[in-house]
């Protein structure tokens, strides 16, 4: 009985162990290189991945040329799978389809017949239903492949061979671009215009030391198949010089008028954007009311793109177009990575290196083709030389052949007597009798002379690098003339983001916010100027129990700083506020600003920018706390807001003003008390601080309702050439609709923190403003009435007077806020139906408000 081997038996030998880490590492590296080299990345020489190359070569072998009949795609897929590509049929067919899609390929390589999908994302029909053949441009990629121009390698089953690269008479990699994801790397090469790429290639041939900046002038950027706009050159220059960059593309949206209505026609979309998904996205935005002013959306596209967007009357097309660019794929980014295989190794290259790879490849192809043709020509010349010897000694040749017993004996006898090679002798023995006539002899002589000229030319090409490069240039010129076409994509010299300022006019507008938090932007032209005491026009589309709580006028290009009741500050561009008509309700603030729970807007300030080092912001709260902060401290604002002031429990921020640092501050309370103190009484504080007492309130019910900057009336005569600054007065309006103007000098300067003095004889104050004789004011009531009236009709009275009627109030209505409209010299006036004037407010108009909101001061500028 044989001894059983056990693990404990010392005679038992174990195999040596191998670390699983080493096995996995080796396997993963092998897999990675297989994916990189044999599947995912294109070759820098012909710009093709292996599967693309195999498809084109298989179609050539099948005879599917551009001037031949179509054949089933199923046959092509089967041929590729059978001989060249050991993978799934879907990978082959999907690649074949992409090579034929004109919205994917700038220069398609396959002519399709049947359903090959669409730009809307529709997939192609099954390959048993579709047909294809090669485009002429693809045949030129394969041209001369049988002349020993490229290396052939065994196929996967070693039953045949396939080309390792195509001769590529065109620079296909840059011409059509490529996309691929390998292991640990990816490539994303955009298509370019063939004319420009060939010109750049020729420029490198002429001057190998040419600078990248010179090449960039020849190739300004990508040229996408669907056209459209490319915004900015910085991303283009980046990828052309380094191999990486981001190109921003936009579709083409034009405004046309149709039957009295304005329409936006989208005639081109960015590269690789699904057209159907774009239309669905636009429809969703309309449904969500994220984009206002669109009445209808239609996709009228066929082979060409045509998306029609009908606009509502009064909508601003440029604003809607910009919203489409911002919120839909109508504007997209294309991240460029110029990564390709160079000598079977992945390499990120700039534009010159990539074209140099192609030039080196074409130099090798032309050299090998020339050598092949030379060998062929020399072989033919060698035979013709034998023919000449035979024709010169025809009778003797015939005698020797007749005397020989067989072909081999005749060959040996001829080679022994005459200086003939075996090849020449074999050719002579295969001559037909008619070729021995005099006419045929002349043809042989003519052919030999022509052949010797060809041989001389071929030898000169092989011996001269300059001549070889000239051949490359000539053939590229022929390709340019044959396939070149104009650029489709337009490159605009706009670096960085194309902001709304580029397409939105800089004009005055009114911003209103209701008690329930609805916000809108309205043109000032919609408000009619009326005489004092008028009924006004409806100024807000408030619904039941809602009313206008804040109003503000500014330029569309300004920044608006939103100060919350809890002291937090948000910053937005004016044009980001949705536009609405005078009677529209507006949009919820929560959809515009990322408000936190319980926040309400207490004040607003409009500024051009945050770089003014001498400007301050003074804040005031209901309990009389004031604080001064540098405007530049708000420069680094963010979408989520930042702290503007620390608020005591039970207190709320009510107003903010922009100051010069040396102004006087005026606070007005609801109980008609006021205090004036110099701004220098307030020290500069950081944003996240509390502030100090500005006014001492006499009762718990009293609270600060307005903060104003004091502008003293000018004194003395102006200097020669100096304009007289308009005299400024303080307008105070009561909730009962009465108001008055008062000299600032009636409010004496006091120390900060006192109880103040009486401001107006009224039970309740609605607001206060610094005004001039030529100003107009806007008044809003609790029930939503808006009245615009000139200020010069308001009487100038003493500090303790009641004033005159500013607006006729309906029963149980009251004045809740006033604002000032500063008109420019370009304002045009006309009569309205009620006998009032219509005033246009230009882009420089600014509104100052006192209904717990504020605006940029133009009154603290020195003449």
Give a topology summary:
Blueprint lengths: L19 H21 L9 H12 L9 E2 H11 L5 H12 L9 E4 L17 E4 L1 H7 L9 E3 L6 E3 L8 H5 L1 E4 L4 E4 L4 H13 L5 H7 L9 E4 L2 H9 L1 E7 L1 E7 L2 E8 L6 H13 L6 E6 L7 E5 L5 H11 L3 E7 L1 E4 L2 E4 L2 H42 L1 H10 L3 H11 L4 H8 L8 H26 L1 H19 L5 E4 L15 E7 L3 E6 L13 E2 L9 E8 L3 E6 L3 E6 L13 E2 L12 E7 L8 E6 L3 E6 L11 E2 L9 E7 L4 E6 L3 E6 L13 E2 L10 E7 L18 E6 L3 E6 L13 E2 L6 E7 L4 E6 L3 E6 L13 E2 L9 E7 L25 E3 L14
Parallel strand pairs: 8-17
Antiparallel strand pairs: 1-3, 2-3, 4-5, 6-7, 8-9, 9-14, 10-11, 11-13, 12-13, 15-16, 18-19, 18-21, 19-24, 20-39, 22-23, 22-25, 23-28, 26-27, 26-29, 27-32, 30-31, 30-33, 31-36, 34-35, 34-37, 35-40, 38-39, 38-41, 41-42
Characterization of this structure:
The protein is 27% helix and 24% strand. It is elongated. The longest helix has 42 residues, at 351-392. The chain folds into four domains: 48-167, Topoisomerase II, domain 5 (Alpha-Beta Complex), CATH 3.90.199; 252-329, Gyrase A, domain 2; 354-483, Orthogonal Bundle (Topoisomerase, domain 3); 505-714 and 725-849, Neuraminidase (6 Propeller). Residues 1-6 and 822-863 have low confidence and may be disordered. The chain has 17 helices and 42 strands. The relative contact order is 0.07. The strands form twelve sheets. A five-stranded antiparallel sheet has the order 20-39-38-41-42, with no helix packed on it. It has a four-stranded mixed sheet with strand order 14-9-8-17. With 863 residues, it is α+β, with helices and mostly antiparallel strands.
């Amino acid at each position: 009985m044989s001894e059983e081997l056990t693990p404990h038996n010392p005679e038992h030998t174990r195999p040596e162990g191998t670390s699983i880490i080493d096995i996995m590492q080796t396997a993963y590296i092998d897999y990675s290189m297989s994916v990189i080299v044999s599947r995912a990345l294109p070759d820098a020489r012909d710009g093709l991945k292996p599967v693309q190359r195999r498809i084109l070569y298989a179609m050539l072998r099948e005879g599917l040329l551009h001037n031949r009949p179509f054949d089933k795609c199923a046959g092509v897929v089967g041929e590729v799978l059978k001989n060249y590509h050991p993978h799934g049929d879907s990978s082959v067919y999907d690649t074949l389809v992409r090579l034929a899609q004109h919205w994917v390929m700038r220069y398609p390589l396959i002519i399709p017949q049947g359903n090959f999908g669409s730009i809307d994302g529709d997939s192609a029909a099954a390959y048993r239903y579709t047909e294809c053949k090669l485009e002429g441009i693809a045949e030129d990629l394969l041209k001369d492949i049988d002349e020993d121009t490229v290396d052939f390698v065994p196929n996967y089953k070693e039953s045949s061979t396939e080309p390792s690269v195509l001769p590529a008479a065109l620079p296909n990699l840059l011409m059509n671009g490529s996309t691929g994801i390998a292991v640990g790397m990816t490539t994303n090469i955009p298509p370019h215009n063939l004319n420009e790429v060939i010109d750049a290639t020729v420029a490198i041939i002429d001057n190998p030391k040419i600078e990248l900046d010179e090449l960039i002038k020849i190739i300004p950027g990508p040229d996408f198949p669907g056209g459209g706009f490319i915004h900015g050159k910085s991303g283009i220059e980046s990828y052309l010089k380094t191999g990486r960059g981001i190109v921003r593309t936009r579709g083409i949206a034009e405004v046309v008028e149709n039957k009295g209505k304005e329409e936006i026609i989208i005639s081109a979309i960015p590269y690789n954007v699904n057209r159907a998904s774009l239309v669905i996205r636009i429809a969703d935005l309309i449904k969500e009311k994220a984009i206002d002013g669109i009445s209808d959306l239609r996709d009228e596209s066929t082979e060409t793109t045509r998306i029609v967007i009908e606009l509502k009357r009064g909508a601003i097309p440029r604003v809607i177009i910009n919203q489409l660019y911002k919120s839909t794929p109508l504007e997209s980014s294309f991240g460029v990575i110029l990564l390709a295989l160079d000598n079977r190794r992945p390499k990120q290259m700039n534009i010159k290196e990539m074209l140099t790879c192609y030039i080196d490849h074409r130099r090798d192809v032309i050299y090998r083709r020339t050598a092949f043709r030379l060998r062929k020509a020399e072989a033919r010349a060698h035979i013709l030389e034998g023919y000449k010897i035979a024709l010169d000694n025809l009778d003797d040749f015939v005698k020797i052949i007749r005397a020989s017993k067989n072909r081999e004996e005749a060959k040996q006898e001829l080679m022994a007597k005459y200086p003939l090679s075996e090849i020449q002798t074999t050719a002579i023995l295969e001559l037909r009798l008619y070729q021995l006539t005099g006419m045929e002899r002349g043809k042989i002589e003519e052919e030999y002379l022509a052949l010797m000229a060809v041989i001389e030319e071929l030898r000169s090409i092989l011996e001269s690098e300059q001549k070889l490069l000239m051949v490359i240039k000539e053939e590229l010129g022929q390709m340019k003339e044959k396939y070149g076409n104009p650029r489709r994509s337009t490159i605009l010299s706009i670096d960085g983001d194309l902001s709304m300022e580029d397409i939105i006019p800089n004009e005055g507008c009114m911003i209103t916010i209701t008690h329930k938090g609805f916000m809108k932007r309205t043109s000032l032209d919609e408000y009619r100027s009326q005489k004092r005491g008028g009924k006004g026009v409806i100024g807000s589309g408030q619904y039941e129990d809602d009313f206008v709580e804040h109003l503000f006028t500014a330029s569309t290009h300004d920044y608006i700083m939103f100060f919350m009741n809890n002291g937090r500050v948000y910053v937005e561009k004016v044009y980001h506020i949705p536009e609405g008509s005078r009677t529209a309700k507006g949009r919820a603030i929560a959809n515009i600003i990322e408000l936190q729970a319980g926040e309400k807007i207490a004040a607003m300030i409009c500024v051009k920018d945050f770089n003014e080092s001498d400007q301050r912001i003074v804040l005031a709260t209901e309990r009389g706390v004031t604080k001064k902060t540098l405007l530049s401290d708000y420069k680094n604002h963010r979408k989520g807001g930042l702290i503007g002031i620390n608020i005591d429990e039970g207190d709320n921020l009510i107003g903010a003003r922009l100051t010069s640092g040396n102004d006087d501050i005026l606070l007005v309370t609801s109980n008609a008390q006021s205090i004036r103190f110099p701004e220098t009484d307030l020290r500069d504080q950081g944003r996240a601080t509390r502030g100090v007492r500005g006014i001492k309130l006499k009762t718990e019910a009293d609270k600060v309702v307005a903060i104003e900057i004091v502008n003293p009336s000018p004194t003395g005569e102006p200097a020669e050439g100096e304009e007289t600054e308009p005299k400024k007065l303080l307008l105070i309006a009561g909730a009962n609709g009465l108001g008055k103007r008062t000299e600032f000098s009636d409010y004496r300067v006091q120390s900060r923190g006192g109880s103040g003095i009486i401001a107006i004889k009224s039970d309740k104050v609605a607001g206060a403003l610094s005004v001039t004789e030529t100003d107009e004011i806007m008044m809003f009531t609790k029930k939503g009435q808006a009245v615009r009236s000139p200020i010069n009709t308001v009487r100038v009275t003493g500090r303790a007077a009641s004033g005159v009627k500013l607006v006729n109030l309906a029963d149980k209505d009251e004045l809740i806020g006033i604002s000032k409209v500063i008109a420019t010299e370009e304002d045009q006036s006309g009569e309205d139906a009620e006998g009032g004037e219509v005033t246009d407010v230009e882009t420089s108009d600014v509104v100052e408000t006192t209904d717990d909101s504020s605006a940029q001061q133009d009154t603290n500028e020195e003449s």
